[in-house]
Amino acid sequence: MPKPNKTHKGLSKRFKVTATGKVKHRKAFRGHILGKKSGNRKRHLRQDGVLTGTNAIKIAAALSPGV
Fold first, then answer.
1. What's the angle, vertex CA 53, arms to CA 59 and CA 65, rounded to 5?
2. How many beta carbons lie within 10 A of that of residue 62, not counting itself?
3. What long-range pairs does 26-29 form, CB within 8 A, spacing at least 24?
4. pLDDT in tens, the chain (67 residues)
5. Contact call for residues 17 and 51 (beta carbons, < 8 A)
6. How many CB atoms lie within 10 A of CB 32?
């Protein structure tokens, strides 16, 4: 009997698939050296980014365990 496909654990810590199938991720440049960044820039970095296109399809496939 073949083994079932597994969820990619590295991707599952970085991305989340929403109920409608969109792929959310945390924006970069928010970890440190925040003093020189403007408040407007930091506020926009707080919001989750959404992947589109081929990247979203590949990541969603890697996150879904093959049933």
1. 25
2. 16
3. none
4. 777 788 889 999 999 999 998 999 999 999 999 999 999 999 999 999 999 899 999 999 999 876 5
5. no
6. 6
- Give the residue from 14, 17, 43 showing the smallest Cα distance to 30: 43
DSSP string, 36-60: TS-HHHHHHHHSPEEE-HHHHHHHH
CATH of 9-63, one of 3.30.420.300, 4.10.410.60, 3.30.390.30, 3.30.465.10: 4.10.410.60
- Type of residue at 24: K
CB distance 49 to 27 below 8 Å: yes
Instruction: Specify the pTM.
Output: 0.79
Find residue 50's DSSP bridge partners.
24
DSSP 29: S
